[in-house]
Design a protein that fits this description.
The protein is mostly helical. The chain has 7 helices and no strands.
Length: 171
């Protein structure tokens, strides 16, 4: 069930309530009065407007709480995915038989560092980093950095369920 129509209705009710209160005050200050209404009708209008504003505050609080829960859940999933990624990386490095130096170069490559940056970080020459990168690609049976990264992304996505596009659409 989509929450969009409910949220639109709440915003409209709050807007009407706010317009009622603000226009009532402005008309009183300006000394302009439309046809007088009975005090009972006026009280009912004010009670209805106040209830609409209170309802908006309550529902806004509930929506805020819901969004906090979703945010925490997303952060937890990201933390788990990060841990799963590192486990997968270590597993693959072990499987490929990478040396400690190759592991460092592969990790820096996965993080997006350039050959020059990796050389500077490892205090080696760019030629050494290129040779180590080629050894990594050969052991991983890939042709370059992009394919290396895609191996890990494919492995991570392999166990994910297909997204339900109908569920994620806003009506």
């Amino acid at each position: 069930m989509s929450r969009l129509p409910v949220m639109i209705a709440i915003v409209l009710v709050q807007a009407l309530c706010a317009v009622f209160f603000v226009s009532d005050i402005l008309l009183t200050v300006a000394g302009v009065r439309a046809q007088p209404v009975s005090w009972q009708t006026r009280e009912l209008l004010e009670i209805g407007a106040a209830l609409g504003l209170v309802l908006g505050v309550v529902l806004g609080g509930l929506a805020f709480r819901h969004n906090l829960r979703r945010s925490r859940l997303a952060e937890e999933r990201l933390r788990r995915a990060s841990g799963a990624f590192m486990d997968l990386v270590e597993e693959r490095f072990e499987e490929w038989g990478l040396t400690p130096a190759e592991r460092d170069v592969a990790m820096f490559s996965l993080k997006g560092f350039s050959t020059a940056e990796i050389a500077a970080l490892r205090d080696t020459s760019e030629g050494t980093v290129k040779a180590q990168s080629n050894a990594i690609y050969r052991k991983a049976a890939v042709s370059g950095r992009a394919q290396l990264m895609s191996l890990f992304i494919d492995d991570l996505m392999q166990d994910l369920p297909e997204p339900d596009l109908k569920k994620d659409q806003i009506a």
